[in-house]
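Before going further, learn to read the protein records used in this course. The integers have meaning only within a learned vocabulary of local backbone shapes. To see the layout at work, look at the sequence and tokens printed below.
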Amino acid sequence: MSRKTRASANAPENATLSVNERILKDCHSLYVDEERGLIGISEKLDLALLAPRKKITVLLIGNHSAGKSSFINWYVEEHVQRTGVAIETQGFTFITSGRKRESLTGNATLHLYPHFEPLRKLQGVVDYLTTEISTSKQKKFSLVTFVDSPGLVDGDMVYPFDVDESLTWLGDLADLIFVFFDPMGQALCKRTLNIVEALNHKHPERIRFYLTKADTAGSDSDRQRVMMQIVQELCKRPGLNKAAFDMPAIFIPSLTAKNPRCENQIDQAAKEVSKAIDQMIQSTLNTLEKDCKLISSTVDEKLERDVVDRSYNLRARGKGLVCGGLGLFFPMLLFLHLLTRAGGGSFLESVVGEGLANEVVYYVTWLFTVVPDDSHTYAYAANLFLCLVFLMVARYVSRTRPTLPRRERRALADVRTYVQDSVKTRKAQLYKEYLQQSVGSEFMS
């Protein structure tokens, strides 16, 4: 890992967790706790749960010198990204909030963001991945990860990796995609429009368009002309020709003249970020509730199925006992007949007593007198056959189903109690704290 320590105007010791940060952190902890985390519980139940993210991802796309890096610096209120007319961003840069101002290279970036690990499969991308960690807590930066992308140009420009495929892949993971068009002649870059059209086909709800550097577009009529050109070019693309098209005009206040001619709508971009954060928090809390229900229902199903299996096993053992007894009855009958014919009455009397022995000898003798003497061989064969049949039936009907050990049943019951009493209660508390930011405690029951 390569590191470059830089000074920062925002001291990390002054940073405190906001309510939203704490909510997301607590939700994340409920999933990844080593002892009783929902991820560990779900693995034991053969369920696949994902730990919620603690930050949203905002992907910035545009031609070179469109103002992507300048926007990030404005939002962070710290000079994190280099800016200029030249192509300053050669690869992808992740800008995130942390405890210490630091720069990370490609491998360290993928360790920090394991869900971006598939980027390794795209040849050359890892060598052009960096992360800038800032201690800034301005606006809602502590809940945002910006992804600054390479400036897009047409012509003979050769990128060291497949920039189109990389941007499309990152767009699949991003919560918001900001597309910046500038009025300086590069707004209609075909490469930019092609990528935006591909992303809009899959994620139209994530894309937001902005006309950057609006203060440099000249008069109001010039700016309107530029916006009309961009809109006309976008409308030529079937995937981008949609109703209610909106493209706010923005510029960086600190980089403009004293008296700009147009209204700056850059705060709308910040509001879009805040809205995405709120949606992520609500989605995280809702997902937590769904996962709790899934775990509880899975535990209930396992315990109920175990009760059914135990009842089935009891009946199966009873059936097997009956059939096995019948299977042993026939060879015992044959043994007693042969014993009485061999004069073993005295031996039988010594074992079971004279009275019972006489009864047994009487019924066995009567049973075999029904069979003609020349058919005794067949009777013996039928006796042995019935014995084998009943023993085979006993083996078949006595097959049991696997059941849970007592310790595992107790552990499942503990899991259900923990999820119902602890996790769901904590989720309700977190939801209440989140809503109190908007409506106040007097509206909460």
About this structure: The longest strand covers residues 56-62. Residues 266-341 form the longest helix (76 residues). The CA atoms of residues 62 and 180 lie 5 Å apart.
